[in-house]
Amino acid sequence: MYKINKDDLDFKKGENIYQIADMLKNDKSNNFDFSACIRRLKAGDNSKKHSHNDSEELIYILSGTGILAINDETSRIKKGDFVVIPKGAPHFLENDGEEQIEILAIGLTGNLYDGWKTWF
Q: What angle (nearest 5°) sits at the alpha carbon of residue 103, between those of residues 84 and 52?
């Protein structure tokens, strides 16, 4: 059994005001074939455009509102939304709300962290 609580996570800061905390990292030290993390983005900030060439990304919005762009399509997101980002699709998140956005991100197969490595 693998179990972790969000309140026990260690959040790291990226180049901007983005924060990330590993819940489960697919780094060959375990037997899992996916990655999971919590990401936070402060009000008024945005993530860098990036893609994950070896993994689909599933995101669930835990709090906040904003705009998510995938390829050439944009959509408003809010708490409770679930989004699938296809493998290799360029995407970014903009927080145009007044509170922090917090999301649960899960990468199916491969490693989500390859797409984020330029942020740290």
A: 45
Cβ contact 36:69 at 8 Å: no
Domain layout of the chain by residue ranges: 9-119
pLDDT at residue 32 is higher than 60: yes
C-alpha distances out from residue 19 to 16, 28, 33, 38, 73, Å: 9, 24, 23, 8, 25
Would the pTM of this model clear 0.90, i.e. be above it?
Answer: no
CA separation for the pair 56, 3 (Å, rounded): 23
The residue behind tokens 């999301």 is 103
Q: Residue 27: CA atoms inside 13 Å, Cβ hemisphere, count?
A: 8
Under CATH, which number does the domain 9-119 receive? 2.60.120.10
CA atoms within 13 A on the CB side of 57: 28
Residue owning tokens 């800061």: 13
